[in-house]
Every structure is written in structure tokens, then in C-alpha cells.
Amino acid sequence: MITFLTILLGLAMLGTLGVLLAGVLGMAGGRGNSRRSNLLMRWRIGLQFLALVIFGILLLAMRH
């Protein structure tokens, strides 16, 4: 169970990093599509929330 949660946490963190980099590169490229930026921001926040929830569950699982 702990191994599965650790893998899920790593995937959520990598997903967050990927969306963050996509947003930064999109802004740096000067394309400036505000709809795409807002969509990426929502995805990043959702993935960060998911990573925090998984992290909390992982901590609770390791306590027992």
C-alpha cells in the first residue's frame, strides 16, 4: 500500500511540474493565450491538491 501511494505521489508531483513548465514556457514564448494559461493554472492547482491529499494519506499509512 505504501509503495502504491508513493508512486501515485511521485506521478502527481511530476504532473504538477509538467503543467507548471508548460505554463511558464507558454508565457515565455510570448504567445500569451489567456484561456490556455487559465486552464493550465486550474490543472496545476488540482494536481497540487491531489499531491497533498496523497501525501497526507501516505503519512497516515506510515504511522500505523
Automatic annotation (TrEMBL):
Record carries keyword Transmembrane helix: yes
Domain HIG1: 1-64
Transmembrane segments annotated in the record for this chain: 42-62
One Pfam family recorded for the sequence: HIG_1_N
Keyword tags: Membrane, Transmembrane, Transmembrane helix
InterPro entries according to UniProt: Hypoxia_induced_domain
Protein name per its UniProtKB record: HIG1 domain-containing protein
